[in-house]
Amino acid sequence: MTAGRARGAYLAALGATVIWGINYSVAKRVLAEIDPLAVAFVRAAGSATVFALLLAARRGFATISRADLWRAAPLGLLGITANQFLFIVGLSHTSASHSGILIAMLPVYVLGLSVLSRQESLTLPRTAGIAVALAGVALVALEKGIDFRSEYLKGDLITIAAGLSFACYTVAGKPVLRDLGALRTTTLAFLTGAPALIVLGSGPFMRQPWASVSTTALYGLGFMVFLGTISAYLLYYFAVSRIDPSQVAAFMYLQPLVAALVAFTFAGERLTRSFVVGGMLVLAGVLITERVGSS
Length: 295
Prior knowledge:
Structural class: mainly alpha
Largest sheet: none
Number of helices: 12
Shape: globular
Number of domains: 1
Radius of gyration: 19 Å
Helix content: over 70%
Number of strands: 0
Order of helices and strands: HHHHHHHHHHHH
Strand content: under 5%
């Protein structure tokens, strides 16, 4: 792989991570006014429509076979139906610190699945990099305190399931991406995975009192669709198509840090020593993992 090709993949992975880090804070604001399943409905319907139009504009549908649809269907069920449903419901039942640390476990899930599927090998340096980054995430999350109250348990378990489903989506998509490319694979995943979310969310969407929803929440919902879903998914799968899934997933360690920085910027919170040290550990862990993977 050329240096330029790898650099483009790293930038795409970083871009997806930054968007999702911002999207996390935006989603919390949106869920304060809009039903979680109504949000899932809008994300699924809007994203599937835009992806279909993008592919049609490139005349990509003419090259899609029934076999391609069957290959993409598991990706749609894992990365779209399961992940988006579980993420939005889990986020509405747990705290920010709980969700942040659980979502940050994604690289561990991806590496384990990649090793089991023999897409990647487990090395000591790569394991060390992931451990260092995970320690940084834990330090940032624990800085505000982890409250193990029983009412959070449901949301925590749902969020873990969301992370596992996205890890499966990441690893299973690698061979499909190699044959179909990022746009076609992502579009087919949405076209096969979005219908279930549309069915599940149609009732809450119709019952949602949209007239009383603030402009801020509506703008936030637009951000979730066009940036948090369409742009981020394309960037993520573009990166997976060029470098190892565990290398891409390693960037997800940065997501809680981005979310925290957004909160610091817009809520006027101050940077703490734990946050700075944890952030340095996360960056060090990601660098170790990426250098090992590209060597």
